[in-house]
Design goal:
Chain lengths: 548, 116
């Protein structure tokens, strides 16, 4: 590579290759400007490829592609603005270095007599360039960071949409693509209310289109293969998307098939309920629960052995059923049995103790270390796996089935999941629990249920995860040091009857972290119920739009 | 949840109320204006009996709001149990009572002004 020095702050060169960039950093260059459009020659490295390596090497990057016909005074002013504000020394490149040199001549000729060439010319720089500069220089800036980075978000649910909204606000010129096959978006925290007869099914039905931010490309396909080694995602329709950054936000899959005899068609029949499968399933579950409350009998509330979204939901459903039985006068001829997958009812010790207390008060029995393995709808007999390979059978009049949950197959088939340890079996992706950055693929982040982190499978966690992942991407693009971390915040308004709840909020260290002063996270009350019944959906949709 | 700022609260109220949000904001603003008028003009132009009547009606409205609020949220008064629940409910009742009472005072003072 031939480098020609034009003045103490600027050198020009012909096309550079990504592998040459670390050497440029060693040579003392602090900024690279690309003056060459992508695709001029076959095999030419793209600006984005150079940008990624440059930023990794601590070099600021700006892209100002010009051709013979676009070597205009306007382009020269923009170039001057970049030179004035980006840290020097700067290396500008095009195919041979000639266009970069021509830009420099035009820029200096335009303001020969000015006391400070750069100071004068910066006023003519484009807004995007200035925004980018402020960011690159590390000054606090509210302005969007200018970049041409390609960002792919796999999954447009709670996490994917929130990330897309935040990124589209904080980046200027980035190519952001959301891969999401579903037109319907579901407010899943509402399923419990639908399944308890408190809300109609359509309460949970929203439209993805209403929350897809402007300027973001929505690809209505499914991510079928993740190739993090090649920085690419391939969809079921065969579209191959190359990225500079990937955010995995696919959520999880419900593995009903892992329970022998169970299928989603059975929900609402034979006393089988399962709100997790969607709005229709939640409504059918309410029919089953209501019929059970009329007659009473044995009600069983299961919980899978895998990590699950909203781990408080199985508990809430047991409390709600108990309440319905009492309201209909059938509680005294009923048994309400909660089958816990482990010895504990909940992962946070303080919450476990409180739930144990409430279960005793309500007469809800607990069978510990019972994991639902099979059901026979005809005889209404459920088989549970118990410790040391044992099994136990129970007859039900009503059974609330919560399936095992895992990463989607395409994620599990990729290199993204944990390779060993507790998280590996179900394919949760290996991200750092504080930064949500992938442990092995530095340009990959996870947000939402898919993350292999100890807590955080709730929509309320997404509210805190999304800004962290976005912050790390934006700061890296802007060559600033990221500072934000996620503390494991998880929230679960634990409904204890229709009309009362406990606003349980905690972090990775099992600390209770209440949002509202005065609301005791372990006290049942009306206000937490109001927050769940009235406030949570509004908070959720505001989050998707980056407003709350 | 965490960090509920005024901006976030405003956005959530907008999401919660949908199309009814701005009409409601206008209504509350009108009520606040009336309350302000009531506070400024009331003491001089409204007699003691009218004051008592207005505040009595306001108090009744406040109590009605307190009784109705749990039901509107599919709960019941029996489920208002913690100190925070009660503080919230009382604050709601007081707010409604004052807003309605002062608005009535303002209306009475305006009526006096047109009669004079
Ligand atoms: C019954 C129930 C009760 C809950 N209660 C609460 C609660 O009270 N409070 C709370 O905060 N949270 C609650 N949650 C949890 C909350 O809904 C989830 O944690 C949240 O939706 C996670 O967001 P996500 O984006 O990771 O996943 P999702 O919102 O599920 O979105 C994932 C998206 O990815 C898409 N997708 C999947 N695979 C692919 C692929 N291969 N390619 C492209 N797109 C793909 C899906 O179509 C989907 O749109 C509850 C959930 C349930 C089911």
């Amino acid at each position: 590579m031939d480098i020609k020095t034009l003045d103490e702050g600027l050198s020009v060169a012909g096309q550079i290759r990504p592998e040459e960039v670390p050497g440029l950093a060693e040579a003392g260059f602090r900024t690279i400007i690309c003056n060459r459009p992508d695709g001029e020659d076959p095999g030419q490295p793209t600006a984005a490829e150079i940008e990624i390596v440059a930023r990794a090497a601590g070099i600021a990057f700006a892209d100002l592609p010009v051709t013979g016909s676009s070597l205009t005074p306007e382009a020269a002013r923009t170039f001057a603005g970049l030179l004035d504000t980006l840290p020097g020394p700067v290396l500008a490149y095009c195919r041979s270095g000639a266009r970069s040199e021509r830009l420099w001549h035009m820029a200096t000729e335009a303001a020969p007599q000015s006391p400070g060439r750069r100071a004068v010319l910066v006023g003519g720089a484009t807004l995007a360039a200035v925004a980018g500069l402020a960011a690159v220089a590390g000054r606090p800036s509210q302005a969007a960071v200018a970049t041409r980075a390609r960002i792919v978000i796999a999954g447009g649910g709670a996490a994917g949409l929130t990330v897309a909204t935040l990124l589209s606000r904080q980046l200027e010129g980035a190519a952001i693509t959301v891969i999401e096959p579903r037109e319907e978006h579901n407010y899943q925290p509402g399923y419990t209310l639908v399944g308890a007869g408190v809300k109609p099914a359509d309460y949970t039905v929203l439209r993805t289109a209403d929350f897809m931010p402007a300027g973001v490309t929505w690809l209505r396909e499914t991510a079928a293969a993740f190739e993090p080694e090649a920085n690419a995602v391939v969809t079921d329709a065969g579209t191959r998307l190359e990225y500079d950054y990937l955010v995995v936000a696919t959520g999880l899959v419900l593995d009903y098939a892992a329970i022998e005899g169970m299928s989603t068609d059975l929900i609402g029949q034979h006393g089988i309920a399962s709100v997790y499968a969607g709005p229709a399933a939640a409504a059918a579950s309410w029919q089953a629960l209501s019929a059970f409350a009329d007659t009473g009998g044995v009600g069983i509330f299961t919980r899978p052995a895998t990590d699950m979204k909203c781990a408080g939901a199985p508990l809430k459903q047991a409390f709600l059923a108990d309440d319905h039985l009492r309201r209909r006068g059938t509680r005294d001829r009923s048994e309400v049995i909660y089958t816990a997958h482990s010895k504990l009812l909940f992962s946070v010790p303080l919450v476990t103790d409180r739930v144990e207390e409430l279960f005793v008060r309500q007469g809800i029995e607990v069978r510990r270390e019972h994991v639902l393995a099979a059901i026979d709808p005809a005889t209404r007999i459920a088989r549970f796996a118990t410790p040391e390979g044992g099994s136990a059978e129970m007859k039900w009049d009503f059974i609330n089935v919560i399936p095992p949950m895992r990463a989607p197959q395409s994620v599990r088939d990729s290199a993204l999941p944990w390779q060993e340890g507790r998280m590996a079996a179900d394919g949760w992706i290996e991200v750092d629990k504080f930064t949500l950055r992938h442990a092995r693929f530095a340009n990959v982040f996870g947000v939402g249920d898919i993350c292999g982190v100890p807590k955080g499978k709730t929509a309320a966690s997404v509210k805190w995860q999304a800004p962290v992942a976005v912050h790390h991407i934006v700061e890296e693009i802007a060559s600033r040091a990221p500072v934000m971390t996620y503390n494991g915040y998880t929230s679960c308004p634990l409904i204890t009857s229709i009309g009362t709840a406990m606003l349980v909020e905690f972090d990775y260290d099992d600390n209770l972290v209440p949002t509202f002063p005065g609301i005791d996270p372990l006290a049942e009350g009306w206000l937490p119920w109001v927050i769940k019944e009235v406030g949570l959906k509004a908070a959720y949709t505001a989050m998707l739009q980056g407003k709350a | 949840m965490q960090d509920i700022t005024i901006g976030a609260f405003w956005a959530m109220a907008g999401e919660m109320l949908g199309a009814a949000f701005w009409p409601l904001v206008l209504l509350i603003a009108a009520l606040a204006l009336l309350d302000f008028v009531g506070l400024v003009r009331g003491p001089k132009r409204v007699g003691r009996r009218s004051w008592l009547l207005a505040l009595g009606i306001g108090a009744a409205a406040g109590i009605a709001a307190m009784l109705a609020a749990p039901g509107i949220t599919q709960s019941s008064l029996a489920q208002v149990v913690t100190v925070t629940d009660w503080l919230f409910l009382v604050a709601l009742g007081l707010g409604v009572a004052l807003a309605v009472g002062l608005a009535l005072v303002a209306l009475l003072s305006l009526r006096r002004a047109t009669e004079a």
